[in-house]
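Students often ask why inverse folding is considered easier than folding. One informal answer: many sequences map to the same fold, so there is more than one right answer. In these notes we will look at a single instance of the problem. The structure comes first.
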Protein backbone atom coordinates (compact mmCIF):
# COMPACT_ATOMS: atom_id res chain seq x y z
CA UNK A 1 0.00 0.00 0.00
CA UNK A 2 2.81 2.43 0.84
CA UNK A 3 4.54 1.55 -2.43
CA UNK A 4 1.39 2.23 -4.41
CA UNK A 5 0.92 5.49 -2.50
CA UNK A 6 4.43 6.64 -3.43
CA UNK A 7 3.78 5.99 -7.12
CA UNK A 8 0.41 7.75 -7.08
CA UNK A 9 1.86 10.73 -5.23
CA UNK A 10 4.57 11.06 -7.90
CA UNK A 11 1.97 11.33 -10.69
CA UNK A 12 -0.77 13.16 -8.79
CA UNK A 13 -0.87 15.98 -11.35
CA UNK A 14 -2.06 13.47 -13.95
CA UNK A 15 -4.92 12.17 -11.81
CA UNK A 16 -8.43 13.62 -11.95
CA UNK A 17 -9.90 12.74 -8.59
CA UNK A 18 -8.96 11.37 -5.20
CA UNK A 19 -7.46 8.06 -4.09
CA UNK A 20 -8.22 6.89 -0.57
CA UNK A 21 -5.86 4.33 0.97
CA UNK A 22 -7.44 2.19 3.67
CA UNK A 23 -5.04 1.19 6.45
CA UNK A 24 -7.59 -0.78 8.41
CA UNK A 25 -7.34 -2.19 11.95
CA UNK A 26 -8.72 -5.56 13.07
CA UNK A 27 -8.60 -7.27 9.69
CA UNK A 28 -8.45 -10.78 11.15
CA UNK A 29 -10.99 -10.51 13.97
CA UNK A 30 -14.50 -11.16 12.67
CA UNK A 31 -16.24 -9.84 15.78
CA UNK A 32 -14.42 -6.48 15.97
CA UNK A 33 -15.27 -3.48 13.75
CA UNK A 34 -12.52 -3.88 11.13
CA UNK A 35 -13.82 -3.12 7.65
CA UNK A 36 -17.35 -2.61 8.93
CA UNK A 37 -16.05 0.06 11.28
CA UNK A 38 -14.48 1.89 8.35
CA UNK A 39 -17.73 1.63 6.39
CA UNK A 40 -19.78 2.85 9.36
CA UNK A 41 -17.47 5.85 9.79
CA UNK A 42 -18.76 7.28 6.49
CA UNK A 43 -15.27 8.05 5.22
CA UNK A 44 -15.88 5.94 2.11
CA UNK A 45 -19.33 7.33 1.29
CA UNK A 46 -17.98 9.27 -1.72
CA UNK A 47 -15.91 6.38 -3.15
CA UNK A 48 -16.86 5.17 -6.64
CA UNK A 49 -14.95 1.88 -6.67
CA UNK A 50 -12.80 -0.07 -4.24
CA UNK A 51 -10.14 -2.75 -4.74
CA UNK A 52 -8.25 -4.97 -2.33
CA UNK A 53 -5.45 -7.50 -2.57
CA UNK A 54 -4.44 -10.59 -0.60
CA UNK A 55 -1.45 -12.90 -1.00
CA UNK A 56 -2.54 -16.37 -2.15
CA UNK A 57 -0.16 -19.36 -2.04
CA UNK A 58 -2.48 -21.54 -4.12
CA UNK A 59 -1.55 -19.46 -7.17
CA UNK A 60 1.93 -19.31 -8.76
CA UNK A 61 4.27 -16.47 -7.85
CA UNK A 62 3.51 -13.29 -9.77
CA UNK A 63 0.08 -14.28 -11.04
CA UNK A 64 -3.14 -12.53 -10.09
CA UNK A 65 -6.38 -14.35 -9.36
CA UNK A 66 -9.44 -12.52 -10.70
CA UNK A 67 -12.83 -14.12 -10.16
CA UNK A 68 -16.28 -12.71 -10.83
CA UNK A 69 -19.02 -13.20 -8.25
CA UNK A 70 -18.45 -15.44 -5.24
CA UNK A 71 -14.84 -15.33 -4.09
CA UNK A 72 -14.69 -15.88 -0.31
CA UNK A 73 -17.31 -17.15 2.10
CA UNK A 74 -19.21 -15.71 5.03
CA UNK A 75 -17.61 -16.78 8.30
CA UNK A 76 -19.46 -17.48 11.56
CA UNK A 77 -18.13 -18.61 14.94
CA UNK A 78 -20.09 -20.85 17.29
CA UNK A 79 -19.49 -21.88 20.90
CA UNK A 80 -21.26 -24.86 22.46
CA UNK A 81 -21.50 -26.01 26.07
CA UNK A 82 -22.77 -29.55 26.64
CA UNK A 83 -23.50 -30.08 30.31
CA UNK A 84 -23.87 -33.59 31.69
CA UNK A 85 -23.34 -35.07 35.13
CA UNK A 86 -19.99 -36.26 36.37
CA UNK A 87 -19.65 -39.70 37.91
CA UNK A 88 -17.09 -42.40 38.59
CA UNK A 89 -15.91 -44.02 35.38
CA UNK A 90 -16.87 -47.44 36.74
CA UNK A 91 -20.48 -46.29 37.29
CA UNK A 92 -21.51 -44.52 34.07
CA UNK A 93 -25.19 -45.22 34.76
CA UNK A 94 -25.08 -42.77 37.66
CA UNK A 95 -24.08 -39.84 35.47
CA UNK A 96 -24.53 -38.22 32.07
CA UNK A 97 -21.34 -38.46 30.02
CA UNK A 98 -20.79 -35.14 28.24
CA UNK A 99 -17.97 -36.59 26.15
CA UNK A 100 -20.23 -39.28 24.70
CA UNK A 101 -22.87 -36.62 24.07
CA UNK A 102 -20.34 -34.34 22.35
CA UNK A 103 -19.17 -37.20 20.14
CA UNK A 104 -22.76 -37.82 19.08
CA UNK A 105 -23.30 -34.16 18.35
CA UNK A 106 -20.14 -33.83 16.25
CA UNK A 107 -21.29 -36.74 14.07
CA UNK A 108 -24.73 -35.13 13.80
CA UNK A 109 -23.21 -31.84 12.63
CA UNK A 110 -21.24 -33.61 9.92
CA UNK A 111 -24.41 -35.44 8.89
CA UNK A 112 -26.30 -32.16 8.54
CA UNK A 113 -23.65 -30.92 6.12
CA UNK A 114 -23.29 -34.21 4.23
CA UNK A 115 -26.92 -35.35 4.13
CA UNK A 116 -29.13 -32.25 4.35
CA UNK A 117 -27.21 -29.95 2.04
CA UNK A 118 -27.20 -30.03 -1.74
CA UNK A 119 -23.60 -31.03 -2.59
CA UNK A 120 -23.61 -28.36 -5.31
CA UNK A 121 -24.11 -25.67 -2.65
CA UNK A 122 -21.36 -24.21 -0.47
CA UNK A 123 -21.45 -25.11 3.22
CA UNK A 124 -18.59 -26.01 5.54
CA UNK A 125 -18.75 -26.60 9.30
CA UNK A 126 -15.56 -27.27 11.20
CA UNK A 127 -15.23 -27.89 14.93
CA UNK A 128 -11.75 -26.77 15.85
CA UNK A 129 -11.85 -26.91 19.66
CA UNK A 130 -13.16 -29.52 22.08
CA UNK A 131 -12.39 -29.40 25.79
CA UNK A 132 -13.69 -31.74 28.47
CA UNK A 133 -12.75 -34.10 31.24
CA UNK A 134 -10.47 -33.97 34.24
CA UNK A 135 -9.27 -37.53 34.79
CA UNK A 136 -9.17 -40.82 32.90
CA UNK A 137 -11.51 -42.65 35.28
CA UNK A 138 -14.15 -39.96 35.77
CA UNK A 139 -17.20 -39.58 33.57
CA UNK A 140 -17.06 -36.06 32.13
CA UNK A 141 -19.61 -33.50 33.28
CA UNK A 142 -18.92 -30.62 30.87
CA UNK A 143 -17.64 -30.31 27.31
CA UNK A 144 -16.95 -27.05 25.48
CA UNK A 145 -16.66 -26.87 21.69
CA UNK A 146 -15.88 -24.09 19.24
CA UNK A 147 -16.20 -24.11 15.50
CA UNK A 148 -16.94 -22.19 12.35
CA UNK A 149 -19.53 -22.32 9.58
CA UNK A 150 -18.80 -20.99 6.09
CA UNK A 151 -21.55 -20.18 3.58
CA UNK A 152 -22.37 -17.96 0.62
CA UNK A 153 -26.17 -17.81 0.55
CA UNK A 154 -27.92 -15.91 3.39
CA UNK A 155 -30.63 -18.59 3.52
CA UNK A 156 -27.99 -21.29 4.00
CA UNK A 157 -26.45 -19.24 6.77
CA UNK A 158 -29.80 -19.02 8.54
CA UNK A 159 -30.36 -22.72 7.98
CA UNK A 160 -27.16 -23.99 9.54
CA UNK A 161 -27.53 -21.75 12.59
CA UNK A 162 -31.05 -23.09 13.14
CA UNK A 163 -30.06 -26.71 12.59
CA UNK A 164 -27.14 -26.54 15.02
CA UNK A 165 -29.55 -25.35 17.68
CA UNK A 166 -32.14 -27.99 16.83
CA UNK A 167 -29.55 -30.76 16.92
CA UNK A 168 -28.49 -29.72 20.42
CA UNK A 169 -32.12 -29.75 21.57
CA UNK A 170 -32.48 -33.29 20.18
CA UNK A 171 -29.26 -34.31 21.91
CA UNK A 172 -30.59 -33.07 25.24
CA UNK A 173 -33.79 -35.06 24.81
CA UNK A 174 -31.91 -38.22 23.88
CA UNK A 175 -29.02 -38.17 26.34
CA UNK A 176 -30.36 -35.95 29.16
CA UNK A 177 -27.74 -33.26 28.70
CA UNK A 178 -28.26 -29.51 28.97
CA UNK A 179 -26.73 -27.69 26.01
CA UNK A 180 -26.31 -24.09 24.93
CA UNK A 181 -25.31 -22.59 21.59
CA UNK A 182 -23.75 -19.16 21.14
CA UNK A 183 -23.72 -18.50 17.40
CA UNK A 184 -21.83 -15.37 16.38
CA UNK A 185 -22.07 -14.03 12.84
CA UNK A 186 -18.82 -12.73 11.42
CA UNK A 187 -17.77 -11.53 7.97
CA UNK A 188 -20.28 -11.66 5.13
CA UNK A 189 -19.45 -13.28 1.80
CA UNK A 190 -16.95 -11.49 -0.46
CA UNK A 191 -18.66 -11.14 -3.84
CA UNK A 192 -16.84 -9.40 -6.68
CA UNK A 193 -18.55 -7.07 -9.13
CA UNK A 194 -18.16 -8.54 -12.65
CA UNK A 195 -17.43 -5.17 -14.28
CA UNK A 196 -14.78 -4.42 -11.66
CA UNK A 197 -13.11 -7.76 -12.39
CA UNK A 198 -13.14 -6.99 -16.12
CA UNK A 199 -11.46 -3.66 -15.40
CA UNK A 200 -8.87 -5.19 -13.07
CA UNK A 201 -8.16 -7.91 -15.62
CA UNK A 202 -7.43 -5.28 -18.28
CA UNK A 203 -4.98 -3.59 -15.89
CA UNK A 204 -3.16 -6.83 -15.09
CA UNK A 205 -2.88 -7.69 -18.78
CA UNK A 206 -1.56 -4.23 -19.63
CA UNK A 207 1.03 -3.92 -16.86
CA UNK A 208 1.92 -7.51 -15.99
CA UNK A 209 1.07 -9.39 -19.16
CA UNK A 210 -1.68 -11.85 -20.06
CA UNK A 211 0.34 -14.71 -18.58
CA UNK A 212 -0.16 -13.15 -15.14
CA UNK A 213 -3.95 -13.46 -15.34
CA UNK A 214 -5.61 -16.42 -13.61
CA UNK A 215 -9.36 -16.89 -13.42
CA UNK A 216 -9.86 -19.38 -10.54
CA UNK A 217 -12.47 -22.03 -11.24
CA UNK A 218 -13.72 -22.26 -7.68
CA UNK A 219 -14.25 -19.75 -4.88
CA UNK A 220 -12.66 -20.23 -1.48
CA UNK A 221 -14.44 -21.10 1.76
CA UNK A 222 -11.96 -18.88 3.61
CA UNK A 223 -13.34 -15.49 4.66
CA UNK A 224 -12.31 -11.87 4.29
CA UNK A 225 -13.72 -8.73 5.86
CA UNK A 226 -13.24 -6.82 2.60
CA UNK A 227 -16.75 -8.15 2.05
CA UNK A 228 -18.07 -5.21 4.08
CA UNK A 229 -16.72 -2.77 1.50
CA UNK A 230 -18.15 -4.73 -1.43
CA UNK A 231 -21.59 -4.81 0.16
CA UNK A 232 -21.59 -1.02 -0.11
CA UNK A 233 -19.24 -0.08 -2.96
CA UNK A 234 -18.64 -1.46 -6.44
CA UNK A 235 -15.29 -3.20 -6.56
CA UNK A 236 -13.28 -6.39 -6.38
CA UNK A 237 -10.92 -8.35 -4.15
CA UNK A 238 -7.93 -9.90 -5.89
CA UNK A 239 -5.51 -12.72 -5.08
CA UNK A 240 -1.79 -12.17 -5.59
CA UNK A 241 -0.03 -15.46 -6.25
CA UNK A 242 2.75 -16.34 -3.81
CA UNK A 243 2.86 -20.08 -4.36
CA UNK A 244 6.12 -21.91 -4.88
CA UNK A 245 7.25 -25.43 -4.07
CA UNK A 246 7.17 -26.11 -0.36
CA UNK A 247 5.42 -22.87 0.58
CA UNK A 248 2.90 -23.55 3.38
CA UNK A 249 -0.67 -22.31 3.35
CA UNK A 250 -1.90 -19.05 4.83
CA UNK A 251 -1.98 -18.81 8.64
CA UNK A 252 0.85 -21.33 8.91
CA UNK A 253 3.76 -20.24 11.09
CA UNK A 254 6.20 -21.16 8.29
CA UNK A 255 4.43 -19.10 5.60
CA UNK A 256 6.70 -16.83 3.58
CA UNK A 257 6.74 -15.02 0.23
CA UNK A 258 8.93 -14.59 -2.80
CA UNK A 259 9.62 -10.87 -2.38
CA UNK A 260 9.41 -10.27 -6.13
CA UNK A 261 5.65 -10.19 -5.63
CA UNK A 262 5.96 -6.89 -3.76
CA UNK A 263 6.73 -5.07 -7.00
CA UNK A 264 3.91 -6.95 -8.72
CA UNK A 265 1.37 -5.95 -6.09
CA UNK A 266 2.52 -2.34 -5.94
CA UNK A 267 2.37 -1.98 -9.73
CA UNK A 268 -1.08 -3.50 -9.96
CA UNK A 269 -2.70 -1.50 -7.18
CA UNK A 270 -1.19 1.80 -8.30
CA UNK A 271 -2.22 1.16 -11.90
CA UNK A 272 -5.80 0.26 -10.97
CA UNK A 273 -6.20 3.64 -9.27
CA UNK A 274 -4.22 5.68 -11.79
CA UNK A 275 -5.95 4.35 -14.89
CA UNK A 276 -9.36 4.80 -13.27
CA UNK A 277 -8.69 8.47 -12.48
CA UNK A 278 -7.05 9.18 -15.84
CA UNK A 279 -10.17 7.85 -17.55
CA UNK A 280 -12.33 10.17 -15.47
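Output (designed amino acids):
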Amino acid sequence: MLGAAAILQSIKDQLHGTVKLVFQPSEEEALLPGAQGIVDSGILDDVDEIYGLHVWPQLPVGTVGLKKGNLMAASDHFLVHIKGKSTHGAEPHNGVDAIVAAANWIVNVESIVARETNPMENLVCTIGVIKGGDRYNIGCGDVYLEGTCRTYEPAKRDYIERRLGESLQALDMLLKTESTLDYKRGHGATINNPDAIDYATSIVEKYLGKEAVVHPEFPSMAAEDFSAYLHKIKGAFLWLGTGFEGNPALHNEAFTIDESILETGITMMAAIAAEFLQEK
